[in-house]
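Hi R.,

Here's the chain you asked about this morning:
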Amino acid sequence: MKCPYCSSENTRVIDSRPADDNYSIRRRRMCDECGKRFTTYEKIETIPLIVIKKDNNREQYDRSKIEAGILRACHKRPISVDQINNLVDEIETEIFNREEKEISSAFIGEIVMDKLKDLEAVAYVRFASVYREFKDVNTFMNELKKILDT
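And here is the predicted structure, written out as tokens:
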């Protein structure tokens, strides 16, 4: 690893531990030339994932889109940021465990709805109303009945 201060290639690891997200390793390093310390993060390289949208366009997977949708659904609900991050981590794990190169946005949406249903009913209905494009009140009521029956 090259030192960011003096560009020397003589650096060594002085401490390794899991990073806060538990999906990467945080390494403290020290340069043998200038003596300065710096931190690096090592993360597992995942298969690039392509999402097939409803209109059959393809785009690269973007975690922030799932986060944004969940945040909108959970707006003003008693759900912590940690709960949302854990939810997104669970969804991402499920997606990447399939080990496919392409996945439909519909499949991702269904996973999100399943996870939200277990977390918070109002957030689930909010997400479902946008995701399933409820056209009228009857469609909305049918979805509410499904929740109440379970």
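One quick note: Helices lie at 63-73, 81-97, 105-119, 121-131, 137-149.

Cheers,
M.
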